[in-house]
Amino acid sequence: MSTLAVHDHGVAGHDHDHEHHHHDTFITKYVFSQDHKMIAKQFLITGITMAVIAMLLSILFRIQLAYPDKSFPLLETLLGRFAPNGRLDPQFYLSLVTIHGTIMVFFVLTAGLSGTFSNLLIPLQVGARDMASPFINMLSYWFFFTASVIMLSSFFIQKGPAGGGWTIYPPLSALPKAMNGSELGMTLWLISMVCFIASSLMGGINYVSTVLNMRTKGMDLWKMPLTVWAFFLTAILGVLSFPVLVAGVVLLIFDRSFGTSFYLSDIILNGKIMPYEGGSPILFQHLFWFLGHPEVYIVIMPAMGISSEVIAVNARKPIFGYHAMVYSLIGITTLSFIVWGHHMFVTGMNPFLGGVFMITTLIIAVPSAVKTFNWLATLWRGNIRFTPAMLFAIGLVSFFISGGITGIFLGNAALDINLHDTYFVVAHFHLVMGSAAIFGMLAGVYHWFPKMFGRLMDDKLGYLHFWLTFICAYLVFFPMHFMGLDGVPRRYYAMTEFPAFNRWLSVNTFITWAAITAGLAQIAFLYNFIHSIFFGKKTTQNPWNATTLEWTAPVEHIHGNWPGEIPTVYRWPYDYSKPGHDADFIQQTVPLSETMSSNLPHDFEDNPAGLQQYNEWAKTQRSSEEVK
Amino acid sequence: MGFKKLINSNKALSLVAAFMLLGTNVLMAQGTGADPKAADSTSKADMWLGVGYYVLLVLLACVIVAVVGKILKVYDLSLQMQGKKGMNWNNIIGVICIIFLVVSLYGVYWSFTVQGNMILPESASAHGGKIDFMFWTTTVITMFVFFITQIILFGFLFKYRGSDKRKGYFYPHNNTIEKVWTIIPAIVLTILVVFGFFTWRSVTNTDNLKGDINIDITGHQFAWEIRYPGKDGKLGQVNYQLYTPNNILGVNFKDRNSFDDQKADTIVLPVNREIRINIHAQDVIHSVYMPHFRVQMNAVPGLPTFFKFTPTITTADMRNRLDDPKFEYSLYCNKICGGGHYNMQKVVRVVSEGEYENWIARQKPYLSDQIKKELHLADAVQPNKAAENRIALNN
C-alpha cells in the first residue's frame, strides 16, 4: 500500500513550467476545461439546472393529481398539445413521470452528485494535482452535457418524451405503437442514456485510478477521508454495473428498430398479431435491475460519504467507527450486486429465487444500520456547530432512517406482494434515496462552496432553505405510505376512476401544496447560490476548521492545486477535539512529532519506531512530572 | 457591491413587482388585441391575471423574507455594537430541532391515527392473514427503531449544540459497541428473514398446482378479459396466433376443453374455495392487483403466470364490516401499461357457493355464434387458410 502512496510528482519542474504557460483562453478555461475543479463546477451547475427542471416536471404532475377535474389554461399555453384544454394528456403525464425519474436518478443524483464532488474532492483530498486523465475527465462532462441536451430535446418532438416509466420495461418501451412515449421520444431516451453511461464510465475509471495511483506521500488508504472512500467505491460500482445497462439498452434498440425479439414474444397489438417470438420481457428486467439496484447505492453512497465528513467536521468530533464506516461501505458495495431481484418478486420470476433475493436484501440492511448508529454516536457528546451543511447532513440521516425502515417491508417478498408498485414504494425511495441523496448533495454544496467559488454562502438563507425543504419533504412523502397501504397504485394519471380512492383526494391536494412550497423554498437556495458566487463574503483558507487536505490548498484556484510541493500526510482525517491539543482540530499535514502532547498510542498502530519514540517521550514526561 | 444593494433593496423588488404587473397587463392587452374570439381572450386575460397574482404573492413572500433577514442582521449588528455577543445561532437551531421533534412526533401520531385508519381492511383471503401478521410484526419492530433513532438524533442535536466553552469528546471507536449494534440488527433481521421466507414460500407454494376453480385473466390495453372453465373445470388452450376480433383470446377450439369455456364481465368467486388465476398479457406487461386479497402478480406477454388464493370474506360480509353498502372488491392494473393505465379495473365479487352456482349458470359460453360462424366459414370457404392454421398450431 505504502509503495503505491509514495509518489514524486516532479513538483518543482512542473510549477516552473506552469508559470510560463498560463495562456488559458475563455474556451479552455470555462468550456473545454481539463481542470478538475472547473469540471466539478460544470457538473454542479448542469446538475442543479437539471434538478430544477425535474422538480418543475414533478410539480406539473402533482397539480394533475391534486386537481384531476380542473382545467388550467396556463398549462395549455405552456405545453400546447400536451395539455389540451388546460388538462394534462394522460400519456404526457406518464412522460412527465418518466423524465422526472430519469433526470433525478441519473442526471442529478448520479452525474450531478458524483460528477461534482468526486471531481472536486478526490484530487484535493488525496493530494493530487489533477485527475489521472484530465482529458477523459473533460470528455466525461461533455458526454454528460450531450446526454442532457438529448434528453431534454425530447420535449420538443411531436409525440413527446419517453413515457414508459424510468425503468422503461419492454414490451411497452419496445413497441412504438403501444403509446406516444414509446415512439421517437424513447429512441432519444435510449441514445441519451448510452451517452450518459459513456460519461459515467469515463468518470468512474478516472476516479478509481486517481484514488489508487495518485495519492500523496503518506496518504495510505486508511488515511483517506470517508468522502474519498465513498466516491471510490461508488465509482467501482458504476464501472461494474453500468455496462450491463448498456447491454440491455442496446438489445432494446435492436428490438425497437431492427426487428429482433430479445424481449418480445406472443404479442397482439391493436388487433395485429406481431411476428416476435421467443423473447422474454423478464430478461430486460434482470439486465436493468442489475444496474438499477447498484444504481441506488451509486446515488446514496457519495451522499453518505459527504454527510460523514460534514458531520464529523461540524460535531467537532472524529467520526465514530471510521473502520466500521469503511467496511460497511464495502459491504454495501459487494451486497448491492446480489439484491437486484427484490424489484422483481411479483414479475413471475421463480418464487424460490425471490426467496433468495429476499435474504440478500435484508442482509444489506445490516451495514446500513451500522452507518446510522455510527452517525448518531458521532453526534453524541459533540460540540455541534449548525452550519447549513451540517443541517443538510443531519437531514440525510433522518431521511435515511425513515426511508430505510420501510425498505425492510419492501425487501420482504411476502409483504412486497401487496406493496409492490404502490405509493408505499414511492414514499420509500423518495425518502431513502431521493431526499436523502439530494440532502447529501446540498450538504456538499454548502460545505465546499468556499472551496469551489472562494466565497461563502449566506447562513441564514441556508437555514431557511433547510427547514422549509426538510419539513415539506416529510409532508410530501409521509402520507404516501398510508396511500400505499391502502393499495393506491403509483403512476396513475387520476384516482377519479376508482370510488375507493376518492378519500385520498384531499391528501393528494395537501401533498401537492407541500411540494409547491418545497419548490419555492429552492428559490432561497438558487438566490443564495448565484448571489454568493459573485457577491458572497470572501472565504478564508479553512473556513470550517477542517482537517482534510483540500483546506491546505490556497483559496485562489491554481492549476495543480498546491503551489510548490504537494503536502505530505501524517495522520488520519478525523483528529477533532483531540485531548491535549490546544485547537480543536489537527490537520492531516501536521506531523505527529509536532503534537506530542496529544498523541495517543493508537496513532502509532503501524509505526513501531514512532511508538517507541512516543513511549520514550511519555516516560520523560512522567519523570519530569515526578521531579516537580 | 452596488449590485448587491440593488438586489437586496426592497425598492428594487417592489419595482420588479410593478414591472411584472405591468408586463402581465401588457400581455393581457396583447391577448385581447390579437385574439379574434372575445370569449377566449377574456379567459386568457383572466389566466394571466391569475398568474400575475401568484407571481406577486411569491414576490411578496421573498420581500418579507428579505425584510426579516435585514432586521435580523441589524439586530445582530446592534448587539455586537453594544459589546455583547451576536445572535447565537447554535442555540436557536438547537431549540428549533427540539420543537421540530415534538411537533413532528405529534404529526406522526396524527398521521397514524387518521391516515392509518384509511388503509386496507383486514385481508379477505386465507394467505393474506399470514401476510398481515408479518406486516404488523415488522411494523412494531421498525416503528420502535424509528422513534428511538429519530428522538436520539434530534435530542442529541439540542443537547450537544455547539458552544465556545466546550470541546467535543474525542471518542473515535469502541469495538464492543460496534459489535453490539451490528449483531442486534443482524439477529432481528434474521428473524424477519426466516419468518418472511416461510411466509413467502407458503403463499407461492406450487405443490398443489390446480385450484378448485381455474380462471384465466388476460390483460391488454386497457381492459381485462375473464374466462371461466365451464362444467369440465378445464380451460381450453390458447394461442395468440389464433387471435381474431371475435376470438380475442385466441382460444384454440381444436381443444375439446375449450367448448364449454365461459366469458364473464365480473370476476365472481365462491367464498372459501381455492382459486387459481392464470394470468396472461397480450401486448405489454400489466399486473393483476387485488389488494384486499393481498394478491399481485404481473401479466407478462409470452410468460403465463398464476396466483392461488382462497377468498374468505364475501362482498356482502365485507360491506357489513366496513359499513359501506357500495363496497366492491376490485382488480387494478398495477404496472405502467400506457395512457389508459389508470383506468383498467374489474369488479371482483365474492359470493356464497349457491349464488356462485346460480351466477355461473347464466354466463355465456366463450364459443359465441360469431366465432362458430367464423370457424365454419374458415372451414368451408377457405380450406387453405384452415390448413395454414393447423400448421401454425403444430408449431
Describe the protein's architecture and organization.
The complex is a heterodimer of chains A (about 625) and B (about 400). Chain A has about 625 residues and is an all-alpha fold. In chain A, about 65% of the residues lie in helices and about 0% in strands. In chain A, the strands form 2 sheets. Chain A has a two-stranded antiparallel sheet with strand order 1-2. In chain A, helix 7 packs antiparallel against helix 8 and helix 10 crosses helix 15. Chain A is globular. In chain A, about 60% of the residues are buried. The N terminus of chain A is likely disordered. With about 400 residues, chain B is an alpha+beta fold. In chain B, strand 1 and strand 2 form a beta hairpin. Chain B has 10 helices and 10 strands. The N terminus and C terminus of chain B are likely disordered. In chain B, strands 3-2-1-5-8 form a 5-stranded mixed beta sheet, with no helix packed on it. In chain B, strands 4-10-9-6-7 form a 5-stranded mixed beta sheet, with helices on one face.
